[in-house]
Amino acid sequence: MTDISRIKELTKLLNHYRNEYYNKNNSEVSDQEYDLLFDELKEKEDKTGFCLANSPTQSVGYLVQSKLQKSVHEYLMLSLDKTKSPDELLKFAGGRKSILMLKLDGLTVCITYENGELVKGETRGDGSIGEDITENVKTFCNVPLTIPYKKKLVVFGEAIIDYNTFYKINSELSDDKKYKNPRNLCSGTVRQLDSKICADRNVKFVAWRLVDGSQSNYFSERLCELESYGFEVVSWSLLAGNIEEQLMSMKKEADEIGLPIDGCVVSYADISYIESLGATSHHLRGQLAFKYAEDQESTILREIEWSMGKTGNLTPVAIFDPVELAGTTVSRASLHNISIMKDLDIKVGANVTVVKKNEIIPQIIECDADVAEFEVPDICPICGGKTAIVKVNDTEVLTCTNADCKGKLLGRLTHYSSKNALNIDGLSEATLEKFMELGWLNQLSDIYTLDSHKEKMVKLDGFGKKSAEKLLAAIEKSKNTTLERYLYGLSIALIGKTASKTISKQFNGDYSKFIEALEDGFDFTQLNDFGATMNSSIYAWCKKYSDSEDAYIPTLLDFEKPKAVIVADNNKDLSGMVFVITGNLTHYSNRNEVVEEIERLGGKVSGSVSTKTSFLINNNIESGTGKNKKAKELGVPIITEVQFNDMIK
Fold first, then answer.
1. 63 in a structural domain
2. Annotated catalytic residue 632
3. Which of 12, 67, 82, 103 is catalytic?
4. Between β-strands 79-83 and 117-123, what pairing exists: parallel, antiparallel or unpaired?
5. What is the pTM of this model?
6. Last residue of a domain, one of 235, 270, 291
7. Is residue 567 domain-resident?
8. Of the candidates 129, 130, 131, 133, which has an alpha carbon nearest to the alpha carbon of residue 143?
9. 516 CB neighbour count, 10 Å cutoff
10. Domain with 467 in it
């Protein structure tokens, strides 16, 4: 065993003893044995000039900073061009000697050493300017504070938090505070102003490129040099012809040791050749990344628009340079609310990674740059009224404080007319907005007086006699509906499609019985998945609704009674069973199809796992999600889509 290997072993062992002694009141070794090991560690550190940041011999204090300072990179830290085709990697190599490395999913960091001592740590930022994180880097659990090499050395690598640490940290947090993935946790940790927080989270540094401080012209030899200095180096191998087998083997290796990755990188072995190819403004030409993950692309976030939703909350929408995803071009994606923007550390001008969830909905999953923070508008872009940040179920959202905001009305009208509500074909958002400008729509009930504007309607651009008649016929048709659709269409806070269905079933689709129950003070918390907040929301809506002209709408409607559950002879009756659905689907095209199937067979669907849950449907039974963990804690069976289909047939 080399001296450096022994230093790593002693550091890990002594830290274990210290943790047992100070945190668990358990002394596994005598003081004399501990002191002997400590002295051996100190002697070898002095002899080799190598010392880990978390060595017991170091009594480095933790620094609390007011803010992270900007840092201009001496060497550009560019991104990589990407492919999802293994054959493209071979084509890229073109027969040249190349190596294949894991592409770690963390935060790219540059560390500089002078005279054998760590002097600087920086985030990648926008590639030219990052943040100075020197004090936090000094707390990484495996980064050397000192190294045997005494000249200047610059190394690029990835700061990561492995899955074991990620799951442990998340297990100690409430569901609403859990981190979505190790990458987000690591990014937030490395940028902490209090370096003690970083020290407590077991951040690792994995080196993947020696930039300055070597005479070797070969990429792999430089990695070996870094390893000899005591760095943990990325897993790599020479690129071979059986590329698919290599890619799967490396992924398996990463999965087994809990490394967060999102692909592999092929790099030419010859450093001079890499440098001769240069780079674009975005990526190096001497390396190419292969992505294992779902269809995703990197682009630049240009601006944030704010649109009004049906509840009156302002929804942030990211506008970015167009990218191709799943065969379509996308340039915008909802950011949902302020809490999600903060979690992603959204910044205008940043590099963002965009995916198409289930190949349908564009979504930003990460943001990586040190540029201007996003600004929350204090004026509503719809009406010019004041905005305010409010908390809804521990989620920060932006809302307009003007009760008469036209944006709120447009959102309510659009939702009321939507497919899952009253399903009024022809009342698009653009049409509704046009009718509002003409003064024809000032509340929901005005939808049912649009026939009085027929003569003017047929003369509008984009309209004619047929279009007007078709729209008015759709409005008339919408009067034959269900209590479930009507309640859902009213945009009652916290009362979505599932809750509306539950209420409708409780009162057998009878609107009069629903109103009578409200007048008698019915407690909705006795219904499945109804809490006190939802109960209060219904009564707050009722108070406001009963004084408005919209209250006359039900007199125009013909409410259908819920259809009886019909179970085919070869299908199982799910009556009395409660299901929760999570994760990606493969057999059903969307979650609504599963919900409809369960309800068709008499079962119920809930949004959260509880003691009432019969089954959790999740194709990834071993995932570390909150719902999976809760199901295991409560002994709720977790089944896949295939098992669910076997159950009902």
1. no
2. no
3. 103
4. unpaired
5. 0.47
6. 291
7. no
8. 133
9. 12
10. 406-478
